[in-house]
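User: My instructor asked us to take a sequence, write out its structure as tokens, and then describe one feature of it. I'm not sure where to start. Here is the sequence I was given:
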Amino acid sequence: MRRFAFTPGGEQTLPLFVETIGIVIERKMVRTEGYPFFHWLQTTRGEGSFTVNGSTFALPVNSGVLLYAGTPHQYEASTELWETAYLTFGGPSVAEMLHTLKLQEGVPVRWDADAPLTGLLRDMLDRLETEPDLFGLNASADAYRFLIALRHYGRFDNRTDIAHGSERLRPLLEWLELHYADAEIGLAEMSGVLDVPVSTLNLWFHHTFGLSPYAYLVQLRLRKAKELLIGASDVTVKEIAERVGFRDASHFVATFRRKTGLPPRQFRRLYE
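Assistant: Let's start with the prediction itself. The structure tokens for your sequence are:
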């Protein structure tokens, strides 16, 4: 068993702090009142059975589960040896982080064997055991990187992970980088690039990015507009609207303001 626990102190003032991290051999655990911190548990060898929110599911290698603080749960080994890696953490910004990353509670997460998730917690534990981290800053940064990787490579409810979903959409994403300025682009043109039905295209985008194909295109156009607003001061807002694919300047200004909180001219002044 390997375990690293932080002494309560300054690290708990961080937006995200690590309480414990470890690798253990599991038997059976019943927590009727849950755990006082957010809790991630993943299988490194063998297999376990996990029960939470009235559902029981298997946790084989390359799978894990995230629990919020205070969620009742229980788990036990399904094989003779069940080794797990775990991370417990807290902080005033954690709930918002998890919501933004769309990391679901109490749902089994799967990932491919070659995904870096498999060894991230072990690497993190190695660093904590060999490098001083008196204020928990390194552990906090590592934990945040782990959550980002979990969102990137994990599959929730058998959804496609972002890495593989992006690969499937890559031809279209590359095409949009070249043709985003065409105001005539619609769902028919985008689905035609991949030769799939519009319904399939919508499903792939929602599972990979959490938004529709057209919303992705709007985000791309706004990103290109920001680059022009910052790097091409001689180009008018009306010209920028045309260059990035908006049919008229008023629609561009309204969309830019709604998405960024600032009108284009005010955004430009921030970088003058």
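For the description part of your assignment, you could build on this observation: The chain has a mean pLDDT of 87. Try explaining in your own words what that tells you about the chain.
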